[in-house]
Design goal:
This is Transport permease protein. The protein is mainly α. It contains eleven helices and no strands. Helix 6 runs antiparallel to helix 10 and helix 6 runs parallel beside helix 11.
């Protein structure tokens, strides 16, 4: 199994990032440009960010985890379709295809996050006071949630092709509702009562708790995210285990 996972990961590295360093450089530049754009636009409109005084750091801690969740969930959802030619071999299973994408893309996004946030601390000479445990927990929460949603969507999108388009439409407001631009604590109580059920908001806020140790954010519930992720993952795997052979023949 390790050899199969490694082969699938190497294939994805070659197809996604290319065989040169340019592909990986773009994987870093793309989120950097996103953070810069957010910082410039909102820096002109606001006197200070929701936390601290550094706009790039505030938006990086919102934009990067959201991008990690969104991309990882999409990669997991398309894993069987992406690796369809290899699933014809008895030694390769749909779990291999999913695990290879999860490991590679989770590590890639975590590395990009470390480079960009670390770079902001260095460039702006910010005092490095972080809680590494809280940050690691946030990364686990993001990965678990993306795997849960991606696993269920993997079945739904291959069984009902229209669901892929419907999911894209349904999740467009998620970028605005996940705390990338604002803090949950700043919202009125009626909005808080609704937004609390958004698990992505918990993930992003958990990361900010690690980067801003004085930020308490007591509403964050890792248990809620992990339980929801486990339920979605188990339900998705149950559907896939019963139907993925039929899905491959379509």
């Amino acid at each position: 199994m390790p050899r199969i996972l490694l082969a699938l990961m190497l294939r994805e590295m070659a197809t996604t990032y290319g065989r040169s360093a340019g592909g990986y450089i773009w994987a870093i530049l793309e989120p950097v440009l996103g953070v810069v754009l957010l910082s410039v636009v909102f820096g002109l409109a606001l006197a200070k960010p929701g936390l601290g005084s550094n706009f790039p750091l505030f938006y990086a801690t919102g934009f990067l985890p959201f991008t990690m969740f969104n991309d990882l969930a999409a990669k997991v959802a398309s894993s069987i379709r992406y690796s369809r030619p290899f699933l014809a071999y008895p030694s390769v299973t749909y779990l291999d295809a999913m695990l290879a994408r999860i490991i590679l893309n989770a590590l890639t996004h975590a590395t990009v996050m470390v480079i960009i946030i670390g770079g902001i601390f260095v460039i702006y000479q910010l005092p490095v006071v972080i809680n590494l445990g809280e940050i690691c927990e946030a990364l686990l929460m993001i990965t678990a949630l993306a795997v849960g949603i991606g696993t269920l969507n993997c079945y739904l999108m291959m069984t009902f092709p229209v669901w892929e388009r419907a999911w894209q439409i349904l999740t467009r407001p998620l970028f605005l509702a996940s705390g990338v631009f604002f803090l949950y604590d700043m919202m009125p109580m009626p909005a808080q009562n609704v937004l609390w059920y958004n698990p992505v908001l918990h993930c992003i806020t958990q990361l900010r708790r690690g980067v801003y140790p004085t930020y308490q954010a007591s509403f964050v519930s890792a248990e809620y995210v992990f339980v929801l992720s486990a339920v979605l993952t188990l339900f998705g795997l149950l559907l896939l285990s019963r139907n993925y052979r039929d899905m491959l023949e379509r």
